[in-house]
Amino acid sequence: MPKIKKLLVANRGEIALRIMRTAQEMGIATVAVFSEADRLSPHVKFADEAVCIGPPPSNQSYLLGDKIINVCLELGVDAIHPGYGFLSENADFAKKVGKAGLIFIGPSPESIEVMGSKLAAKQAVAKYDIPLVPGTEEAISDIPVAKLRAAEIGYPILIKASAGGGGKGMRIVESEAEFEEQMNRAVSEAQSAFGDGAVFIEKFITSPRHIEIQILGDQHGNTVYLFERECSIQRRHQKVIEEAPSAVVNPEMRKAMGEAAVGVAKACNYYGAGTVEFIVDDKLNFYFLEMNTRLQVEHPVTEMITGKDLVREQILVAEGNPLSFAQEDLKIHGHSVEIRVYAEDPKNNFLPDIGKLVTYRRPQGPGIRVDDGFEEGMDIPIYYDPMIAKLITHGETRQDAIDRMIRAINDYRITGIQTTLDFCRFALQHGAFVSGDFDTKFVEKFFTPEKLIPEFTQEESELMAALAVEFFLKEENRINPTQPIKAIPSTNWKNRLV
To answer: Which side of the chain, N or C, has fewer Cβ within a 10 Å radius?
Structure first.
């Protein structure tokens, strides 16, 4: 396969910029595509060439696969990197890329199709003796039959959309009495979100951890695992804090999960970078959940502990090169933590808080990495995911990485919008996180908006109360000068501030 000389990144923001940086280091020219909302974005300025492909809504720009392919053909592009989201797991797009004589930097369309269906994925991996959550092996729509299967599995159960993701088309059912209503809702939501109403039933693991394995395969049958990432701190079924390695995975469990992940990859003849996700119960039993056939948002923590550039490896694999390292060559170096800095208000149920980045100052220093796609003065568009940046730290130990992250959060300066920085600081300092004893219910168990209100010492409280009284009396004397002057208490506050 010929060497890639020009690469189009079919994405935006931080991931587009991150891919282009590696491409530049490899001597590969880059092409950016952008919507009208992203005209001034850093990834557009960084690329060697840039083409506007439509208005802000993604279905009129970043999801226009045919238009993106035409741009490639017009500009002499060799390959397309889809990043994550948008077209990254669209098997039809990957097929069209190949038919156009272009290289798709990702797995084969067949792998995407198999792993894009949770049911097809479960059926494919069943041959490899990989632990699966008890549940139905096929899509189910007959409610009486589904009720019988749910009773056999045992409540609570989880109804899941086969084509789902991000928590859509997913319903927890605690008892038979609510089964029918929840199933109808899951089918309706799955149909609306994915155009596919197929659902299946699984045993609901009540307090699971979400641990995933990064895999990398080439087109010559070689596959390795690059260890695990802990992704259990979530809100609305979406990750907020990730780390590598996990605080609870020992070497034996790591090897077992890694080998299971490689089995999943082999089940669909996978090549490129991919992630096999597992849920882990309170006894540290792990079960296959799904495979993401693309680069993950949280891939930097794996890069930090392995020293491998996953985008570089993706490009080399797409060119037809065999992996340049074997499993025994991979070692874990230190610990890494990543937080996603979202334009969301944690004090208001993590709702998006779109606006202008009035102040934007990145933290700096040893062991700190910021992957972002914004600059000071830019607006956060309402059309896309509200993530501003990924902040990543690395340290010799887990506590070193956490301490460095807290320092980096304190150094980050963002005004004009609310962000998840305060929540992430709270989570990282919480005893459950520090001890490693947490699961996907962390937010539900430990977080309330009041936790982000600063606590004051008794002396600070007394001082603020005294200042408030002094201000009130001064204002009253100013507004009503004809009234008898009220005595202003001597708070001695100036001396107390020294």
So the answer is: C
Q: Where are the domains of the chain?
A: 6-105, 134-203, 209-452, 458-497
Q: How far is CA 358 from the centre of its chain?
A: 25
Q: Which of 325, 83, 358, 364 is nearest to 224 (CA)?
A: 325
Which two structure tokens, joined as six digits, stand for 392?
């990543």
Q: Which residues pair with 51 in a beta bridge?
A: 33
Q: What is the dihedral of CA 83, 86, 90, 96, to 10 degrees?
A: -80
Contact assessment for residue 8 and residue 1, using Cβ atoms and an 8 Å cutoff? no
Tokens 């798709």 map to which residue?
104
pLDDT tens-digit profile of 179-197? 999 999 988 888 887 888 8
CA 263 from centroid of its chain's CA atoms: 24
Token pair 């993401």: residue? 292
Pick from 268, 274, 269, 272: which is nearest to 319 by CA?
Answer: 272
CATH classification code of 209-452: 3.30.470.20
CATH of domain 6-105: 3.40.50.20
DSSP bridge pairs for 163 = none
Q: How far apart are the first and last CA of the chain?
A: 71
**Cβ–Cβ < 8 Å for 71, 77:** yes
pLDDT tens per residue across span 122-160: 889 988 889 999 898 888 888 888 999 999 999 999 998
Q: Which residues contact 371 (CB under 8 A, 6 or more apart)?
A: 14, 15, 17, 18, 300, 389, 390, 392
Which residues partner with 159 through β-bridges?
Answer: 171, 201
State which amino acid sits at residue 251: P
SS3 152: helix
Longest dimension (CA), the chain: 93
Catalytic residues: 294
Sequence letter at residue 493:
W
Model pTM? 0.86
